[in-house]
Specification:
Helix content of chain A: 40-55%
Oligomer: homodimer
Distance between the termini of chain A: 33 Å
Largest sheet of chain A: 8 strands, mixed
Number of helices of chain A: 11
CATH superfamily of the largest domain in chain A: NAD(P)-binding Rossmann-like Domain
Shape of chain A: globular
């Protein structure tokens, strides 16, 4: 693998570039972005070696697409049109159904591998890229059987080399479960931040009182709306379903408080403490 | 200060004991707990030097009460009955109205300082105690004017010496604002954990898909129900008010999704991103 094209050079694209280059200093990382300023920043940060444009993709051994998922759905067919017969295209989007669907009948479908590295942070843009982001993290690969075997092998070796565990799943299962364990957390966090900011708008120094617990629960409210709006749009059905369940649980908790049923409140918490075991090893 | 009595030797009591002893190795930390096993654990961990019982409090220079807030309300008048005229009693509870109220007419009210060190973690018990927990953290002191000046001075020096910033507030303001920036986060986290566990009860390995974002938002769901149930009970009115606002924001978000108003969804998130600036410095 010699010529790698990163479409999107932010947190995920940039971090992948750092690790891949570290493992193989001979690769040339070409950056592609709608905004030249982003490419200049990525160059300055040495995330990429060169700036490139879409037409250059014909020279790619590997194309990594790490842009908002609505942009991926729009761009992916064109990228597959452009890539050579031996070129591999992967995406890193947080939704998989729409992305897989848009290329299901593409003549170069076998050059594409759909994946989702579970390794974000709440930061975004080239300056958020860090080395070692993927060590020990899970990379969910969808519809692996639709990718040419040789390109599968190439991709899986590359991601194993940067420390990722691979997990296979179909796009529907991915989108459903990721709504539960990732997308909902973002909404809970954004709305928690909004609720408290609304209440304390005129008393900013109140946040002196906030401890690490508050910081932890609202951390995800720093996430990029550009990235997250299309995720919620594409995964609307699953997200609404789990959000409704969450709201109902909160309403139930409030009703228990209103009824002074603190024994039930205790049990709600006690039964959820079991999350300790579940979280072991996630960090 | 020579004889310090820690009533409750868990996360907060134990961590205070570690730091105080480190700053002045001559103090003797006496531990008091309902459960002898807890005291034995605290002794083994060297959090305390000796086991003691309530009657010994007459010998105390300082009594630190770090037990669930319902137990504090019950015990505090007795502790003040027992303490000598020069002894100082402080509590570390997450609510302040009921605690201050129960001793407002106590003849030894001036021997008591109500405080709330904002420095918890989601862990509990003696094994959760750590050195340096309070460095750079805020200690909220309520009704400082009701404490004898000399004992105020003593207490404030002690807490400054372990690295805390002091903030003064009345109990009503404390309970209101802490509902916003701490108590609500615990409910959002517990119910998030519950919602996802309920959905995924039969598919445990789905949690492989959870990343650090999920871990961060459900971290507080590991907290002790024994500690948190009485907090919600004592701060019921404030907690219900902010919980209702949170639920309404979540319902609004869900409705925007149902209406496909993703421009509004984007703006909801964009406006909340401002939490970045607010959180600077909280960690």
């Amino acid at each position: 693998m010699k010529n790698i094209y990163a479409i999107g050079v932010g947190l995920i694209g940039g971090s992948l570039a750092i690790d891949i280059k570290k493992n193989d200093p001979n690769v040339i990382i070409h950056g592609i972005s709608r905004k030249d300023a982003t490419l200049e920043e990525a160059l300055a940060l040495k995330l990429i070696d060169k700036k490139a444009s879409l037409e250059d993709i014909k020279n790619a051994d590997l194309v990594i697409i790490s842009i908002p998922v609505d942009a991926t759905v729009k761009l992916l067919p064109t990228v597959l049109d452009l890539v050579s017969d031996t070129g591999l295209v992967v995406d890193a989007g947080s939704t998989k159904v729409d992305i897989c669907k848009v290329v299901e009948n593409h003549p170069k479908r076998r050059n594409f591998l759909a994946m989702h590295p579970i390794a974000g942070t709440e930061h975004s843009g080239p300056s958020a890229a860090i080395g070692g982001l993927f060590v020990g993290k899970t990379n969910i690969v969808c519809e692996v059987e639709k990718t040419t075997f040789k390109l599968q092998e190439k991709a899986l070796k590359l991601f194993a080399d940067i420390g990722m565990r691979i997990r296979y799943m179909n796009p529907e299962a991915h989108d459903k479960h990721i709504a539960y364990v990732s997308h909902l957390s973002h909404i809970s966090s954004f709305m928690l931040g909004k609720t408290v900011i609304d209440k304390e708008r005129n008393e900013r120094d109140i946040f002196d009182m906030a401890g690490s617990g508050f910081a932890s629960t609202v951390r995800l409210a720093k996430s990029s709306p550009e990235m997250w709006t299309p995720i919620f749009k594409q995964n609307k059905t699953n997200v609404i379903e789990i959000l409704e369940a969450y709201i109902n649980n909160l309403i139930h908790f409030k009703e228990l408080m209103e009824q002074d049923d603190f024994e039930a409140i205790f049990n709600e918490m006690k039964n959820t403490n079991y999350i300790k075991d579940i979280l072991k090893g996630i960090s």
